[in-house]
Queue: 3 jobs
Job 1
Amino acid sequence: MENLLYVGKSVPRKDGPLKATGRAQYTVDLSLPGMLVGKVLRSPYPHARILSIDTSKANKLPGVKAVVTAADSLQIKHGFVETPRYPADQYPLAVDTVRHVGEDVAGVAAIDEDTAEEALSLIKVEYEPLPAVFDPEEAMKPEAPEIHPNHPKANEPYRNIGGKTETGWGDLEKAFNESYLIREDKYTCQMRAHGYLEPQATVAHFDYSGKLNVWTSSMGVFIKRAKLAKTLGLPYGQVRVLKTYVGGAFGGKIDLFHHEYISALLSMKCHLPVKIVYSREEVFKAARHGQPLIVQIKTGVAKDGAILGQEIRTINDSGAYHGSGVVVIFLAWGFAMAPYRVPNMKYEGYSIYTNNLVRAPQRGHGAPKMRFAAESQFDMIAEELGIDPIEFRLRNARKPGELLPNGDSVKNFGLIECITRVDHRTDFKNKYATAIRERETDSKIKRGIGIGTTAYFGGSLIYPNSSSVIVKLNDDASVSLMTGALDVGQGCETVLCQIAAEELAVPVEEVQVYAADTETTPVDIGSWISGLTYVTGNATKKAAAQAMKKLLVIAAEELKADVKDLATHHKEIFVNHSPDRRISYAQAIAASIAKNRGDSVIGEGHFRTMKDEPTHPSLATAKGRWTENYSSYATVAEVEVDTETGLVKILKATTAHDCGFPLNPTLVEGQIDGQVSMGQGHMLTEALRVEKGCVINPSFLEYKMPCALDMVETDYIDVITEKYQKDRHYNTKEVGEGYVSGTVAAVANAVYNATGVRLKQTPFSPDRVLDGLEQTAKRKEG
Amino acid sequence: MKKLPKQLISLKVNGYEYEVAVRPNRTLLEVLREDLRLTGTKEGCDDGSCGTCTVLLEGVPLRACLCLAVAVQGKEVTTIEGLAEGDQLHPIQRAFVDHGAIQCGYCSPGMILTAKALLDTTPAPTEQDIKLAISGNFCRCTGYNKIVRAIKIASQNAAGGK
């Protein structure tokens, strides 16, 4: 690595002091003069026809300033994906039919919360309940009630198909015929909440100039502007979405949420600011949650463990509308084929409409489920072949430079190195063998070790596709960085400042970020497809480099020297070998203003991933380039299983990760720790329980997320495969979401190693573990 | 719905005396955030399960969402706004910032105040002491590792006179 001043260093996060002192303003903290309290009336039925809505009493209640229903709206549908194959399928306020419990039917704005609540109770809605279906496999049967009768059918012969991804390559039949061993298994994962601590919240103010100003707890302001403008029928120039600090998102705050639309519509009716904040119960019962997924996987291998072919079928319960269901079935294919060579493949993914809540992406978006399935099966196959889990993976892991079936290259892919190094660091093989020997001892506590691996994409082409950044030097040579990026806690503002500081050789403390305002900052890809550090980071690098170049050109003129002979130190530019000839940055800026007709030194940078690709890959066929940068990870989990209580404890998680290179090591570690914790929740305790479409454990008391006493010891191994260089763009890979899967898969395999119990359904709750132990014991006796 | 009449109460928050008229059913959290505009104290669940709204009452951690404002009259309340002196961060805040213990920051005010109460009574806590003390404060971002470490470092710095 070159001699770097700021990039690659653990610079403390820029917003740390604001957050530590309680001064950072989140959407929930906003208060504007005259602001009203907004509330949403929701459907109590999973599927019903709306016969009538009477809002007259609510409208007359003193203190109520606005009431809205679909009749007040333009009735324009929207969707997470809007393509000819998957047209928008969801109204922001229900028109004629509700398709899930909690669907938005009406909104009110009133002077205080009590009045708003009372107004909701005065709205009379007459429903005619319709038959409903909640299980995706039931919903596929011909006799199931049809949830979207007029929706274009993605594919027959099943019912309620919201989306289908179908792809494959090679000759699978031949591969299976030649296989020494074939295994077929079915795995299922539960629905989980995102668990962001700041609830969904929006403040909308349609002011008298005709502009809609929106502050909302989200993952990117430009996507929100696009969806609000479309559904409200406003031009982009009339919708301004502004930054607030975001109290966690994890995938759950992307796409249009209806309270955002409703608060805007209410404000358009009364010209006063309207604030809607979900209660925690509302978050659990009505917001979007993660994707439960069923994965059927059939794998054929040669005697030496080489994978010859795979047939995979995934079924996603997308809930009442598409949400991100049509995307997760595409992504699940990607997470199956990216880390390991699969020479012959048939993949079918179905996204099924049901009368459940709509789904959002959730950290990893399908990867934890796919890797749980594939990696559990890998270990089963390896055991049957008498190969150890490490060797099996090394035999099949993709090597640097390999081309994927969609045309992507994995480039400097570090998976093999990750597996090798995590194996050595944890003394894997020794501990693995010991655990198997000790299964037979009398001890009630069993220990085990397991490995899980992942590859993950780093940015793809989906609106807004690209990022632009402006870097402005001020008279005193301090730096203003304008970016549309919204920091959701991962620390992107800090990383972008580090890059600007590096390029301009100014102290990172002197770079000030102005972020996430659709009006005053340039477009940004957003904090939601794992491409921000790559895309916005490179745009920042280009913008800062351009400003630096301008500065050097004017300095060369002033010093009567050649640009290539100049060097910088402490915000001064001097001539190499003649350090007396020097000029400060501030003097150079003043010279530029004086001599270049007022050019105050501003740099702009733009970056788009996959510059030669027109659009994202086909969700239907998976054809087309997906991403430029594949991260890889190998995780080893060490667990303890109490065979009397069925309780699983994760003792330690060691991750070897190839994120290219860490731009900020502390932030990278923070991402990994957070994902271990999420993987832990996925595997052990978190599950939303749903009855007839209604979440019946809608509080943190009944939905158990990991607390500090559950903390898992973590260890990290940096596998460096890329570098930061001057005068060219850098490659970096994601580190924000792929790793959840490594934890999930590693824990599943470690529990097996400890106990001999192979569970195929998450979470591994005590009752499932005990049941597994009982069945394993019976099999042995039988 | 009939509203209860307001009462005039006196609240001592971060060393200041505030006189506010509140209805007796309003929580300390609501009054801090809405009447006094001290929005550093966050709401996460409204049922006492997440710890986000933690403040100190006479130095002891308290969930402000479970406590009525009228019940703490005359007692000293400390919120996150009362910790730093101007731009000078409290040593625990400093340690959180410097050692990666903050990501989205939503749990940080409650977490930092809980840590302060711990270090005030247990200046040299073990790792288990720290985990136990903050076990009622959820953090979804960090997995707790860097928070526990930051609290440990803050305690060591205090012992070393830093």
Job 2
Amino acid sequence: MMSEAPFPTVSNFIWLGDRFVETLDLEPAGVRRHRLSEASGQFSIQQRTAAGEHVLARDRLGVNKLFFAIDGEGGVHTSNYRFDLARRGFSPEAIWSVPSGHVVTIDPAERMLALEKYADLAFNEDPTESARPTAYAGQIRERLTAVFRSLAPVVGRRPLYVSLSGGLDSATVGALAREFVGEFTAVTFAVDTGRSGLHSEDLHYAARLAAHLGVRFEPVVLTRAQILSLLDTALIYGQDWRDFNVHCALVNAAVGAAIRDRHAASASAAAPVLLTGDVMNELMADYTAVWYNGREYYRLPRLSPGRLRRFLVSGLDAGDREVGVFKHFGVDVVQPYALCAEVYASLPASFIESPQAKQRLVREVMGDRIPDYIYDRPKTRAQAGGADEITGTLAVLADAGIDAAALEQRFSTLFSTDRARMRQWIRAGFYRFTSSYPTGVTHAALDA
Amino acid sequence: MQRWTPDTVADELERFIRHQFQVPDDDTNLTRETHLWEAGYVDSLGVAEVIAHLEETFGVRIPDEALFSPDFVRIRGIAQIVCDLRAKRPEILGRAS
């Protein structure tokens, strides 16, 4: 029979303007939408009302994931991990996602399900507004400062880590964390190349930056075999098979395992928390394809950056390469840029599409708090490892013959489904969801 | 002004899909009833391109809720969704188109 033991839950970091809270009271129904629309941050909420309804809500960017399934007796089962529900015996068709920025209300007695959107991120697609960063820097600086000031009492008493790649996004997070929160340990991933001290450009720049900030630096260097041993973990807890997410989930699995091991050896009882520079690339459409051994990876929809960012941001709904993977290792993740989404979304398309947009904006916002060598460095992605030489998880998997099709196959095996059905789980960056009460096979639960 | 009906929207959408995803004109497997995602004519990246094209061409905003609608998998169904969305737009209702 199915176990009723609760699943482990991903932590909420709900920002209500000047403070963080762990949950929201979504009763009565009349205030639900307003209360949710006031909240920023990352959360997944499951509550039972006095009337017996199940209320499920998820943050507007979909940083935290939330899945549910309804069994044959009308019992509603929820988890942050799809895998938990699969292990409990639900068939793939019986598992649904709560989409980002939505609240789902389920009344099994009435066989009723209502899906309501409570928040929408408004992107400024005006092609004529000013492309000068000075016009927006003040607002962004103000928001970032408020976020980090509010974070200080929440994360400052816990073992604090910042994921540094040596790039602009994480450098900004590191600099602001140092200024407003205090000391932390910088962690940076690299693949062991066998060349002492020359594992990756990321490592080199991150080490320099950590020294500049006056914080402890901890490289996480894994051999190719060690990285490959983490693949199933990356697939299951990263909740995605697409290569751009799996390669990144592998980086995070390596870092998460290192933090877990380090924390296990420390005397602190508080769970570690990690700040990352994620979400900024989506908000500024700052992604490009990567070429390795004559093949193109991380291809993007053929849209202008000003239009693309909306799809990149909504695509955060699917894939759990950060929060989900790190939580598996007992590490809470906070993504400060997710708390600033509205101000970044208000940047006009004309600015997003202007040359060196991010560099110019960050320089305007952060000034000399970030050293010049970080501004001047070509953009890289952690899973690539460097701009000039691809040394990251992309190369590890590609060289091992684990391509996109192999990832898809392995994921389908782990989740006991076939690839054709699996492809129905994600569409346009959203996990599969429903706007009506599941019927037929969709609510048939199987005994584990 | 172009008068859009389910048939003309479908025509335009098929033209876009054939062009954007390099489907030969003589590929008769692509019909108004073909499941675009299962048949592999449009992949996960292509969905974003289809949505962006629909929104730009027909002046509608495809809601998230449409993504997993059983109609949003075939050209005919998508065309109907677009026409329904246009009909709900107050500024469209008052026009001759």
Job 3
Amino acid sequence: MKILIKNGRIIDPASGTDNVADLLIENGLVTGINKDISREKTEKVIDATGKVVCPGFIDLHVHLREPGFEGKETIESGCKAAAAGGFTSICPMPNTNPAADCLPVIDFIKNTATKVSLIRVLPIAAITKGRKGQELSPMGELAEAGVVGFSDDGDYVSSSSLLLNALLYSRTFDLPIMEHCEDACLAEGGLMNEGLLACRLGLKGITNATEEIAVNRDIALAKESGGRLHLCHISTAGSVELVRQAKAAGIRVSAEVTPHHLTLTEAEVNGYNTSAKVNPPLRTQTDIEALIAGLKDGTIDAIATDHAPHTRNDKLCEFGLAANGISGLETALASLMGLVHSGKLSLSLLIEKLTLGPQQVLGEKYQNIGNLKAGSCADVVIFDPDEEWTVDTAKFFSKGKNTPLEGRKLKGRVKTTIACGQIVYQQA
Amino acid sequence: MTHIPKTPADTETLLSEVQGWKHRHVLDLDNFSREELDMVMQTAGVMLDILSRPVKKVPALKGKTIATLFYEPSTRTRSSFELAAKSLSADVLNLNVSQSSISKGESLLDTLDTLESLGADMVVMRHPLSGAPYLAANNCHANIINAGDGWHAHPSQALLDIFTILRHKSSLEGLKITLIGDIKHSRVAHSNIWGLSKMGAKITLCAPYTLLPEGLNTNSKIFPEVTLETDIKQAVSGADVVMGLRLQRERQQSGLLPGIREYARYFQLNEEILKLAKPNSLVMHPGPVNEDIELSQSVVHGEQSVINEQVKNGVAVRMALFYLCSGSKEI
């Protein structure tokens, strides 16, 4: 099967490409970028005039909820949502039930994804058995089964000695430990960002130190162990600075940030809006500026959605009882394009943080994705950077309709997603 | 200035002056204007008169059902609302739900559905989780009156506090009002900060730093007249009103205080400290008082204490809220 994408603005941060040209896909691989590639013998021609053509996005952090919480999301609905958001590779977190801490669960996830056959699903396994923070999971076996990293996401590994061992042991298999950084004592009972608004709403605040203490400890352990540390969803200016210093000191640390922490502030919580309840909490404009600066200077490697779908009832309750999380796959690009349209981020840097950046966190093994080099996997997204649309969660592929962006007008829309040379999404 | 009617004709005149009420619910005082606070005060004045008549009842809400839904134990507030409803001839349905049953299994919205099916026109609710009345107001038809939610708000208490002060002072404009106690976790304090500052008072908040909302210091745009103070002598000095807050024992358990005795040593309002306030100053407390902890016994029962008046005025203020939210024009 040959697909020819004509006349799009091709942006490939891996090769520094940014020009209007045609892109040819043959047998699931990118085979060429050139001006005026002939239409001959191509089964499918896509006119991408005025559109951006770039590598399919890679999301290091999603929750697919299966097995165990199929009411919130399934591997199938999550993959469809990802495809609609322009993502061609996603890394589901292991906080399923049972937890993805052993071969059978990882195999189940991979087999189900194969049956769904839409996009690449690269599972992350638990650091500890049952995500209980006590004993290491069988990391060697899990690495062999193809997991891309280890995380007890949702919980912090409280024991410093256990995390040190996790970093040392996973280093044996050259896989990252992906930490959810949150000091458990400080976090207890916390519901939103600490500050005047938390006081006004009578909600217990989560201080910046809650995250920064954990980031600091983990960086110290990464230094000591020589292991690979990846920090999930950092949210504060202080965390950005800690990562910046660690990188300058040559410590093997990488970091991701979510679209919501880059675009929304704690003000979304006003009126006890549970769709804006998320952990780490939405912070302040100062933090947003620092996170953007971190993307620009390379401190932050990747943008990851932390797509966290929930049922209606999980959110339609008292703020204190509501589940944490935002369903983010289908609004990620458009909300981030707001930063491009307002001049805060360049389009090529944004694409880099959704493609090359996360690919580098995954490592050399995955260098055939996240770029449009000849011979790379034909994962491609075509989007209109200027099309305006209104978020309507009723039209989400995700079962999770939980987003504070419902009803909001965004600018930038995914038109076509191609994964391994197959068209997996076309905007109606 | 509170207006207490002197004749039945006064009652009608005073009530007819109250126009433009737009609140269906009373959730917090943050969205109340100065004019709306005045409306409550004027209406409560009429209600206080009704309560002092030989027949303490008017038919304003006859045929209406008011439910009280309390997820926290309360005697005073619930009784006050019940009496207020009955004085307006409403039927009252009391529902006490144990705090332990707050779970997603027996949801607040299910319970409210049931109350509405039973015909409740208004629901007075108290809930340990901040914002619960907002969930209720957004998802049901009844008028919701917040009788205290978590650390967030207790609007009727703040309104009765303002009403009580106005029974003794011609205006709140420029008065120094000092609140002492666990400001950070007190819904009474939070609603009072909104209400008192809209009435033009200068507010001083006094507590150790673990119980002080420091965020208030950094955003003077919203509350320009709020001062934080850790020294009780400074805080009380020259005050027109001193309000103690109930110290919850759990604050010690959660590590915010080393102990009750130490708290009393540094933050108890006693006779000696009260002398630093203006001679005609008022001592207030939302009740129930932990005597000899936040207030010394002599201050609770002293001449300047208006704590019992607060209780009495509470019924009138709650009648006013029911009356205004119901849209009734009869009295």
